[in-house]
Write a structure and sequence with these properties.
The structure holds two protein chains of two kinds. By secondary structure, chain A is an alpha+beta fold. Chain A is 25% helix and 34% strand. Chain A contains 14 helices and 33 strands. In chain A, strand 12 (246-250) and strand 13 form a beta hairpin. In chain A, helix 12 runs antiparallel to helix 14. Chain B has helices spanning 39-53, 74-87, 107-116, 130-135, 144-154, 173-185, 203-209, 218-234, 253-259, 286-294, 307-318, 332-343, 349-353, 361-365, 367-375, and strands at 4-10, 29-30, 34-35, 58-66, 89-100, 120-126, 159-166, 190-195, 238-241, 244-246, 264-267, 272-275, 278-282, 299-304, 325-326, 356-357. In chain B, strands 9-10-8-7-6-5-4-1-11 form a nine-stranded mixed beta sheet, with helices on both faces. In chain B, helix 1 packs parallel to helix 2 (74-87), helix 2 runs parallel beside helix 3 and helix 12 runs antiparallel to helix 15. The longest helix of chain B is centred in the middle third of the chain and has 17 residues, at 218-234. The A-B interface holds A 533, 555-566, 568-569, 571-572, 575-576, 578-579, 582 and B 7, 194-197, 218-219, 221-222, 225, 242-243, 255, 258-259, 264, 266, 270-274, 279, 281, 303, 309, 312-313, 316-317, 320, 344, 346, 364-369, 371-372, 375.
Amino acid sequence: MTTPQPGSTDPAIVRNFSIIAHIDHGKSTLADRMLQQTGLVDARSMRAQYLDRMDIERERGITIKSQAVRLPYTSVSGENFVLNLIDTPGHVDFTYEVSRSLAACEGAVLLVDAAQGIEAQTLANLYLAMENELEIIPVLNKIDLPAAQPEKYAAELAHIIGCDPADILKVSAKTGEGVIELLERIVERVPAPKGDPAAPARALIFDSVYDTYRGVVTYVRVVDGRIATRDKIEMMSLGTTHELLEVGVISPEPMATKGLGVGEVGYLITGVKDVRQSRVGDTVTTAVHGATENLGGYRDPKPMVFSGLYPLDGSDYPELRDALDKLKLNDASLTYEPETSLALGFGFRCGFLGLLHLEIVRERLEREFNLDLISTAPNVIYRVVTDAGAEITVTNPSEFPETKLAKIFEPTVRATVILPSEFVGAVMELCQVRRGTLLGMDYLSEDRVELRYTLPMAEIVFDFFDQLKSKTRGYASLDYEPTGEQDADLVKVDILLHGEPVDAFSAVVHRDKAYAYGVTMAQKLKELIPRQQFEVPIQAAIGSRIITRETVRAMRKDVLAKCYGGDITRKRKLLEKQKEGKKRMKMVGRVEVPQEAFIAALSTSDTPTKK
Amino acid sequence: MAPISLYVHVPFCVSRCGYCDFNTYTASELAGGVNQESFHEILNQEVAFAARTLDQPTVSTIFFGGGTPTLIGAAALNNTLEFIGNNFSISDTVEITTEANPDSVDAKMFAELKAGGFNRISIGMQSASTNVLKILQRTHTPGASEKAARLAREAGFDHVNMDLIYGTPGETDADVRASVTAAVESGVDHISAYSLIVEDGTALARQVQSGELPAPDEDLSADRFEIIDHMLEDAGMQWYEISNWALPGGQGQHNQSYWNGSDWWGIGPGAHSHRSGTRWWNHKHPSTYARALETGSPQAGQEVLTAEQRHVETVMLGLRTRAGVDLGSLTDAEQERCSALAAQGLLDGGALALGVARVSDHGRLVADSVIRELLG
């Protein structure tokens, strides 16, 4: 029997599926096992997390960009199939990307750790899959673990998706147990793709990745018609056309083919250099005799969270700009524009999909581009209407208007928290403090609860997840999606050092919390700012009204008692060292502030960041 | 050639005080045949080495420090002093000091030292408070230092210094006042007062680390400095360096050579030297030092200062003194910063008008910041 060739595969033997799983629940290991058990990768060339390409993905065990791999599979009964595993990004910030990956599939494997049960993001992605009418194949993983409770979590899953607990497969991706049964189940249950081979070509873009050598690699799922090498293609939402340089499939390495037919999954290369030219969710058609109607569901990526990124060493600014330019090629949702901070110098105000996105970008800038950065506290977008009726969009607290304001709108999210029932009280209290409104509460099983809240997004971006984890000893999981906006009584709190406002510390907060923010910040800074030759008042203010004050007392004594023969060299070296240290000071007016003070004051917790 | 100051280090003590990180040893016998009885002979070897190295050396000041120089006895000290006299040219007016521990001196010793040529005594009093002396782990009792000072005066020493330490945990303002009064009344013409510094590796550092003693408080130290300064001014003593006050004519000549860029040679283990922009230092341990000296030079390391480093040192050392720094030796930018520092009240405006950068009374307490600011 010959292996079905890409471009001429009968849709009836194609099965497109993805795996929905929480971080650490074993998705990458399961994918590895599938690569082996279908015979695509032999033991010798196998490596862990085969499909994860970025260092960060491997290290953090999460997938940032999707991958799609074509797995030829001969079933137990001897039939030939082609399985396309479309790996979905695994985090809350990338919900839209997940939804497009799911839209490219007919089925989804719901993979849940048999020792931990379902987590909030998995649940959210499961609902996305159900909305897309995907066939759900529930699987409990890690049944080899001593702590596994397959019966308990099978009941929980059955309750959530409404199936028979006996239908839930139990596998160990680690040992390979149950993986063949899973592959058989996929072949048997996941519907074959349906599409019109004679219709104009339409393919859904579910990911696009920038490659240094090839330019942008666009991952697509063909719905109707056929896309072939040397076709001229059109991006329907942008209306742009490109010559197609290569069409191929990943199996498991990229392999050029003559084309892709109905139901097939593969990649396109056009030579464009910017992923913005090839947007996730867009529809690809042929430029000649193309489709007139797109597949729908396209959305522009919209940053939700903003933060200022500044090089620790001001002379690194050009390097930071180049690094952002490079990252942008691979990240359609990253936005940035230059900004100047009195306190931090030249930097960029960057927009992100969410906190994890921010963290990943920051980490990549530091690691791949060797930059030392200060990032300001993350903030959301505010829509401000002045008394005069003018509407202003504020992405940086220091730009919050000083004039009289009629209304201020802040973005909200619908948050889902899954947690052991014993922590419900603590988490409800946290959500209350964060101005949340309870939408509902469900018991998933005897001791696990799903809480749903509407929360201001601003309350989530500032250390909410850390608090949630610490209040539930790490057992809670969180998912959220933007739901709109609400008007709120918000004010800008400025922090003044010796009478000078420090823009990097300005924050927009709810009026009820302004005092607490001011006090916390002033106290933190009091500890962080070294004593100067003069007394330094640290004040928090709303407009011109001072709400709190701390004082760094003037330095009384700074002189070494003894300086005789043997002390001189030592003293001069100390002086040289102090001179170096002075270079790392930022001047705010007359006040010398160490860089470390900015970093520590801007960090969300008392302890230094985890990195 | 320019005259040179000599420092002679005697690295022995009866016991080590809790705050002390000086190069000193309590054993009477160290490895390699080094012992307290014959140590002056080893010192003499370096004196000879120094005399050979320098061409027709003239000595401007001599200072025996430690450790506890008086521990090896007047005869040994006199022997080395005599040996110096045989190898260097010394005028009658040269200041010759030895440090003395109140425990290890008496009238007879002072008489012998006077006869041997010493003309200045520096006594480690530290405090008049029993409590403070105990925390500092000093072995002498209150009153012993004042008595030693009187004995030295009676033996004919016109110049006597008292060392004080302030800012010790547990010390009160009253303790400080009592110490200054006792020191002044003992008839000395010079007082050095040092704020207590917790040096790494000392018993005191361990006590502070473990919480047994609180760390010295900088603000309290500042208060105490002001108390001391006022009391000494009232007693007719004028400051001439951050930690040094003297009656007219009582300023220590030797220490000034450290601050005005003169040449000086340190004899003994761990001693530092300076000669026209080159600094070097001897092996620290007496046995290693003695062995190195045996085969040639006792030097363990050296640095040749760049012009910029010499300039930094000129400012760093000069600004600690009342003499200050001549504006002529400063760059234009530094001179401009001097004006700003005077405007802030950190430099003495009157002195500046006369062409000298000198810290103001307030500036003395933050002299290190002033030095950093001035150097830019």
